[in-house]
Amino acid sequence: MVAVADRPGASRFLWVSSGEPHAIRRRELLSKYGEQIRKLYGYDHATAYQVIAVVITQFILAYAVRDWDWWKVWVAAYVVSGTLNQNLFCAQHEISHFLAFKKPSYNKLLALFGNLPLVVPVAKKFREYHHDHHIFLGIDGGDVDLPTVLESNWITGFFSKLFFTFIYLSIYAVRPLVVRPKAVTIGDFVNWAMVIGVDVGVLYFWGVKSLVYLLAGSLLGGGLHPMAGHLIAEHYMFCRGQETYSYYGPLNLLSYNVGYHNEHHDFPQIPQTRLHKLREIAPEYYDSLYAHTSWCWVLWRFLVDPSMGPWSRMHRVMREGTPDANEKFIAGRCQTATESNAVEAKKSCDTLLTGGVNALQSTMGGKSAARLIHKHNENNPNNYPM
Fold this sequence. Notes:
Blueprint: E1 14-16, H1 21-38, H2 46-64, H3 70-95, H4 104-115, H5 123-135, H6 149-154, H7 158-166, H8 168-179, H9 186-205, H10 208-221, H11 229-233, E2 246-247, H12 261-266, H13 275-281, H14 283-286, E3 291-292, H15 295-304, E4 314-316, H16 323-331, H17 342-363, H18 369-379
Parallel strand pairs: 1-4, 2-3
Helix pairs in contact: 2-3, 2-10, 3-4, 3-10, 7-15, 9-10
Membrane topology: Multi-pass membrane protein
Transmembrane segments: 46-65, 154-174, 186-206, 212-233
GO cellular component, one term: endoplasmic reticulum membrane
């Protein structure tokens, strides 16, 4: 179906019948380069060293700004704290895959430690929801990274997209709790106690300016900030039919190579310091994909291009896809998803609009994402990715 620019909501989504692209490409790559690729699996302590250094730096700077003029605090919050706290948010992404240490428990402790300057507790729930994002990419009810129909209806013009982008990290954090809340666990209480305890300590001993420096860094660094460009760049559709996008530019140095996003989704068990080697092993699969070279350009294009918005995402009903659609995707060297025909696409969007996610899954013959997620998380209490 062709996305219709003048229709609201689900009718703008691009509906596809091929399966989750990274699982398919992973099988193709392992069949050709399995031995070379498996040598890249593992972990890298370099991530831990960087996280520790950035956390210490942030608290030193938070102490330093306690007596600054407010305008200086705000400038430092955007330029410095925004960069460093977005660095720590990207670290949560890397650590959620247990790629800093061999033992999962060490990775969990590092995630909690890296969460301390962010002011808002995110480590525990981010790991769970990000795990689901990998398993159910593009599936309504499973991938809470997908903007909702409500967002697609409301965020339509330049100024609404400007506001949407400015508070994007807040939306990114709140959407999963509204769309599909998860049970609170002991791990959540530990996460909250540690982060809120540090917040109270910073406020009591250093004052409000130090806390504002840290909190504003988290909010500003996740909005209209060069480092936040990856949040739009990763899965918003800049090339029709391509679901995930890599970024090959200098800001990868500050973001744990999160820009190597196709490579990461294909093999989430490869640490960030080795993802470039995967691209070198199989250039025929990666060099032909559309890729970004500037996150600032990504933000600008998202804002000024009227054809782009929260609806610029691909949706699929079944993770596994249909055999014919998958064969077509493979024949194209795993580049462009197979689009649903007009009748299937209209049926999907109408069902989503009138009956919601559960009705969509049932009507289209797909398995319930919610049931699959519950079963998978039940069998994998550590939420270790595929």
